[in-house]
Amino acid sequence: MLPSTAVIFPAAGKSQRFGGKEKKPFALIDNRAVWLRTVEQFVNRDEIKQLIIVISEEDLEMFKRKFGANIMFFDIQIVTGGKERFESVENALEILKPEIELVAIHDAVRPCLTSSFIDTVFKAAAVHGAAIPAIEVADTLKESAHGNFVDKTVSRKGLWQAQTPQVFQKKILVEAFEKRGSIKEPITDDAQLVECLGQKVKLVPGLKTNIKITSSEDLGLVDLILKNKKPDKVRPLRPFEDDDLYR
Ligand SMILES: Nc1ccn([C@@H]2O[C@H](COP(=O)(O)OP(=O)(O)OP(=O)(O)O)[C@@H](O)[C@H]2O)c(=O)n1
Ligand SMILES: C[C@](O)(CO)[C@H](O)COP(=O)(O)O
Asked: Which domain of life is it from (predicted)?
């Protein structure tokens, strides 16, 4: 049995790159909002004792009005978002229940994951204290300052694309957020704060289908993935054996 776990779903961004008529967590895929499709991947798991969604101040009234029944059904708590993603997560950390041991943070806009994939990341975090899924960069990388012509080709060696859920022992994550003041670079995921503590973060093979909806064309891709995959039959890119967790 996995340790008692809370899942935080940041959904308080501005969806600027999405450019749709509503923000991406509330966009519909086959008549069901993206955030609902994401959260439902995590319900009915014995180790999950708390669900928290982060919603921006300006969306709160709409969210409660439109999704009241779903909020009750999932027993999901709502927290107000911050300006940056990490500030949204920080607000959610404040209401963690005392019995929580592991905290998973999963973008509300990544609905294409499977329960075996969640199992693998959760188990790795239980063993190592911190774990994230990631995919090794497969394409050739070009640098272009202005996005019109190539400046140069850069090495992809050792580069990985981070996904969510990112999962941490509560005390490690809380300490990482307390010490975040010393970080000067932009903070784009939660693992970055934990890395800065000097804590090792275990890499777990990411799922190719676990895409983050960023622009509106991603909605069509997600729709295709959800319609064409039997979610729990999707395997990680490389089979990940339990032994791998301890390396
Ligand atoms: N201040 C913020 C910023 C982002 N997010 C959430 O974090 C997830 C991943 O962020 P991203 O894809 O960058 O979303 P946006 O910030 O909304 O996108 P954009 O940069 O295009 O505005 C999304 O579910 C988003 O709602 C959040 O809760 N609070
Ligand atoms: C957390 C994340 O989804 C991992 O890939 C990503 O870092 C979010 O980045 P964004 O800049 O908020 O899109």
From this structure: Bacteria
How many domains does the chain divide into? 1
Residue 17 Cα to ligand 1 middle (Å): 10
56's tokens: 């921006």
Ligand 1 centroid distance, CA of 12 (Å): 6
Domain that holds residue 92: 5-236
Q: Which residue has the tokens 């199992």?
A: 119
The complex's ipTM?
0.98
Element (H, E) at 10: strand 5-10
Atom 9, ligand 2: which residue's CA is nearest? 188
Q: What is the pLDDT of residue 238?
A: 52
Task: For residue 87, give the ligand 1 atom closest to its CA.
Answer: 1
pLDDT digits (tens, 9 = 90+) for 15-57: 999 987 899 999 999 999 999 999 999 998 999 999 999 999 9
pTM for the predicted model, two decimal places: 0.94
Domain membership flag for residue 241: no
In a domain, 232, yes or no: yes
In angstroms, what is the span from residue 189 Cα to ligand 1's centroid?
11
CATH number at residue 158: 3.90.550.10
Does residue 94 sit within a domain? yes
Output the pLDDT for position 237.
47
Kindly identify the ligand whose nearest atom is closest to the C-alpha of 89: 1
> DSSP string covering 149-186, please?
S--EEE--TT-EEE-S-EEEEHHHHHHHHHTGGG--S-
Residues near 77 by Cβ (< 8 Å), separated by ≥ 6?
Answer: 50, 51, 52, 53, 95
Q: Is residue 164 part of a domain?
A: yes
Does ligand 2 come within 6 angstroms of the Cβ of 164?
A: yes
